[in-house]
Amino acid sequence: MKIGMSHGAGGGIMQGLISEIILENLKNKSVNGGVGLDDLDDGASIPMDDYEIVVSTDSHTVDPIFFPGGDIGTISIAGTVNDVSVMGAKPLAITNAMVISEGFSGEDFEKIIKSMDAVCREAGVSIITGDTKVMEHDKLDKIIIATTGIGIVKKGEIKRDSGLEIGNKIILTGSVGDHGISLMSYREGFGFETDLQSDVAPVWGMVEAALKVGGVTAMKDPTRGGIANALNELASKSGVGMLIDEEKIPLKAEVVAASEMLGLDPYEVANEGKVVMGVEADKADETLEAIRKTKYGKDAQIIGEVTDNVHVVIETLLGGKRILEAPIADPVPRVC
Amino acid sequence: MKIGMSHGAGGGIMQGLISEIILENLKNKSVNGGVGLDDLDDGASIPMDDYEIVVSTDSHTVDPIFFPGGDIGTISIAGTVNDVSVMGAKPLAITNAMVISEGFSGEDFEKIIKSMDAVCREAGVSIITGDTKVMEHDKLDKIIIATTGIGIVKKGEIKRDSGLEIGNKIILTGSVGDHGISLMSYREGFGFETDLQSDVAPVWGMVEAALKVGGVTAMKDPTRGGIANALNELASKSGVGMLIDEEKIPLKAEVVAASEMLGLDPYEVANEGKVVMGVEADKADETLEAIRKTKYGKDAQIIGEVTDNVHVVIETLLGGKRILEAPIADPVPRVC
């Protein structure tokens, strides 16, 4: 068997590779009964006395490395900080392992480091240790940045993907598809007369506001595979279904237009600054208001609710119903 | 400026890149007053109530990926576990971010995962979360594995590179150059009739035994740049010198022979299962005995002592003295 592109695309084929080769061959996959590798959550946890250490890791290989709204540095910090955040933990620190291609521009490298710094300042996290390697130019294209985030949450307050309960409301913190569609538009050189930009941003501000209200049951940041993947993962891990009101899903007009031209489904492409979360029904309105007051949350919506169905069902704009499936693999070349 | 191979080679040129571009452009570099990025230690720490969380990260790009004595999987776990260990922290968990080249053999991938599992079992650590990406075959050669290790140490008991005190004895836990020289021999296809293998192994057993005695002041695992780099880093960060007795440095006959044929200095090439440590003089013998009783420590030696000199001075086999300099860059193509 040869590893193919779809094995890394965040869909069902990738899940197969992970289960059959990785999970199957490892014995030690959790520590002290915390969230571990088998849980395939956004990260993992190490329970200590009064709290849990939460960690998450990601290798960033975005193409192009500079794009409207950010660059690989922005995404390396935001992406990892976000994975820690959606476990309910306050992100504190980042480790940063970079592999750079021989001949890479020192000026571009400096720009990337400055982007990382900007997100760190905004999110209140520190890059506390790192590693820098250089690979021959014929062995690596440009740069790969692997970041690991470390956060802290009080014991018992960690949010797992499996936490949804029937009757919960589903909140989406803003418009979907901005990252994936803007990158694809930019990459294909389509001259859309648009200001469409990646939504890459740290989500901790929105998460913290929502957690303070006290009704959040589960969260996920919809990156690879888009909200189609994130909603299905939350539902299947929680053993529930969802009924989503399509009318409520925030979508920018430019994203709709570009999606049609590119033949892409905005529900299946990556976002880099959004959260979907389950919230106890009686706290949903208050949580929505709290999120809307934050920097990136003003377009947040309650988009549906958790049901005892086994599928994520969308009530379409025309009033019909269809099942929203998790993508088998990325519908587009990798953009995150 | 273009990034060159020497920028990632673990020597002085790399220190320059790190200082001028990375450290210079980042504001947040530590958390709660712990060991941070500016310390350029083996890892970093996040002080909590009664203990510190210790983290270390590394991108592994070894060539060849399978070599006598191990593979990139072995080294990914051992290397990261060792960096946590030499900070005095018990390693608990690993995060594992892999980027695989499209077309990479599934069988080789499985072998690598099995090697990771074996080291995890031996070291008592768990791979608790991960990330898997696939890159186009013309953009990445083979595989890169970025691991981050998380460990715990009681507050105040962390071992920093700067901890050496004048009069301390220097212990080296075994023979040097095995990893670098065996890989270079293998890679060059030299038909040495030898069993020379990489020394890749987790060092926590040796470190734990030494820590129990109570006199360890500083530790480092001599990887890139070899013991020449590790001893100089310890000395310069502690503001001291060393006098090393060359006769006491354990060197395998095959390493000496192969080094001469390859024109390499075994003090400057990587090790993957050794520790150099400073120990209070009155506890040095007891510490040495404790290390010698462990699986990988039977050849440990007291190789010298900490002086008020500013250099690492070697008393050579012929009775002369020379300064052991830190290498400017790797003397060999990257082997770790």
From TrEMBL, chains A, B:
Q: Which residues form the PurM-like C-terminal domain?
A: 166-313
Organismal lineage: Archaea, Methanobacteriati, Methanobacteriota, Methanomada group, Methanobacteria
Positions of the PurM-like N-terminal domain = 41-153
Concerning InterPro entries, the annotation shows: HypE, PurM-like_C_dom, PurM-like_C_sf, PurM-like_N, PurM-like_N_sf
The UniProt family comment states: Belongs to the HypE family.
Q: What is this protein called?
A: Hydrogenase expression/formation protein HypE
Against Pfam families, the record matches this protein to: AIRS, AIRS_C
- Output the GO biological process annotations, alphabetical, semicolon-separated: protein maturation
Q: What species is this protein from?
A: Methanobacterium lacus (strain AL-21)
